[in-house]
Amino acid sequence: MVRPAMSRRLFAIFPADIPPPVRGALWMVFSACSFAGVSVAVHSLAGRIHPFEIAFFRTLFLLFFMSPLLLRSGWSVLRTRNWRMHLFRCLASVAAMMSWFSALSLMPIAEVTALTFTAPLFSTLGAGLLLGERVGVRRWGAVLIGFAGTLVILRPGIEALAPGAWVALLAALFMAIIPLSVKVLSRTDPPTTVVLLVALLSTPLSLIPALFVWTAPPPETWPWLVASGLFATGVQWGMAKAYALADVTAVLPFDFSRLIFVAAGGFLMFGEVLDVWTAAGAIIIFSATLYTARREARLARRLNPPPPGR
Fold this sequence. Notes:
The chain has helices spanning 4-10, 20-45, 51-73, 83-104, 109-116, 119-129, 137-154, 163-185, 191-211, 222-245, 248-255, 257-270, 276-303. The protein is an all-alpha fold. The chain has one domain (21-303). The longest helix has 28 residues, at 276-303.
């Protein structure tokens, strides 16, 4: 039996008397800060544990930290008639993790984060090409501008393209599949089912590639492995709460704080400095993403106007 009141108390961080849009923004900042925590933890493990193994432990500890929700919701929350799509979503999630963690072992974390901002642009392409959604000229223009921002970061012709950059873009491509699959799953399953099943299914799926590169984690790496799962839980809950409390366009600008937190973590922990090209490219990419989100919200309101009196 689902107990929403208990679940709300368990994850209540911000006071309920704060207006919902403000709480939504705070939850998005919380998610962005947690994202930086995952990036720092994984970057700290680079060279000591293979990225595929890190991905497994990240999902394992994510499942551990999300187990209270499963215990309070009951096993019935896992019922679904769309197992194939859940499995596809989890495969994309595992592939995104392995690519993202591999990129973090090859590049400064701020550059990897900036390149992953292209994921919503890939999602726009996928929505038009795979889901058959109508993508107008303005949205295609936003996609092109976003990819121009990617070129600013990569600087082809000025600098040799680092292998880590290609891996980061691959991670963004897999990340783009996730919201498309979640959009399909949301037609039949509640968000709690989607969140819990990804944690349950991703753990054994991520173990398979990890077994081929398995080494016993050194004792000093265990705090970072646990931290990666803990911060990943924060990312999941922060985004879910943010989008539940406010419109996407209201909280999406705060997602850009990911780059700020990641750049701060990279500087404090590893002495990495965010260069001007990466910052400029990230701003271009995120501006294109924000424009697309705002336009989608306006179209949704036009197609589904609120009832009279509201």
